[in-house]
Amino acid sequence: MASDHHEHAHGPARPHGHGHGDTHMDFAQMLPLLVQEAELFTPAYAEAAEWLREQRPEPGLIVDAGSGPGVISCLLAEKFPGARVVAVDGAEPLLAEARTRAERLGVADRFGTIEAELSEGVGDLEYPADLLWASRSLHHVGDQRAALAGFVRSLAPGGMLALLEGGLPTRFLPRDTGIGRPGLEARIDAVHDEWFTRMRAELPGSVAETEDWPALLGAVGLRHTATRTFLLDLPAPVSDEARAFVVTALTRRRDGLAEALDPDDLATLDRLLDPEDKASVHHRSDVFLLTAMTVYVGVRPE
Questions:
Q1: What is the pLDDT of residue 28?
Q2: Which positions ≥6 away from 132 have C-beta within 8 Å?
Q3: pTM of the model
Q4: Are 259 and 195 in contact (CB under 8 A)?
Q5: Which residues face 9 on adjacent strands?
């Protein structure tokens, strides 16, 4: 499980869909994409971290639950220079990458990792967390309410849980691209939503849950104190890094959802991804990246 992921129909995050019939994801195999995406989305994460710092200026221990390769974990270490940060993930290769990043950025002396599945909590912490960050990792746990309750048990009294879930779909292209039928990305989102519903249903111990995140925070004993949405707006013309990510993201959507996409939309995607086609995202001047990510904050009563 890994939080540094995007390209999600509910806002960016986590590249979904290895094959439309396959809802299992091997996050360790996604390492390059996860790093690529989290680094590109860092401006929005940095804004969220600054906002959290206003509410909890000096946490002693920060836990990144579902940390992935540690891009956000290390950002939290930089934004909270007095805190120890623990990255928790179920994939050791991603945690190894997180440790390497922490070393490279000079925060390794107050950075640790724990290998644990979030369905079973965040592992054995030396002491309770003052801030627990969970960025689009919760929806990969079958029983989200039980996982949230596990997060709460790891919080110190007065500790804060920051849950990033939901938001808005990511957009890369104008509604009418001049090829194929207008509205392509909206139709891809509809197919992805069906995939996401099936993915949730097939998780071990899956429990259907209304995605009312403030209500869920309340149900596990937290006091919902704030909600804020953070915009990532990379307008056209995009950087080479952003363009490369758009190519990667659309390729994953094309490959993962191919069986359920309309044949004409699939043909349009193939043109958009063909480096030899001047109408492709490799060459277009109108490619952009726009999305919104929502963070819900709950505080454990003292």
A1: 65
A2: 62, 63, 65, 122, 151, 154, 155, 159, 160, 161, 162
A3: 0.91
A4: no
A5: 11
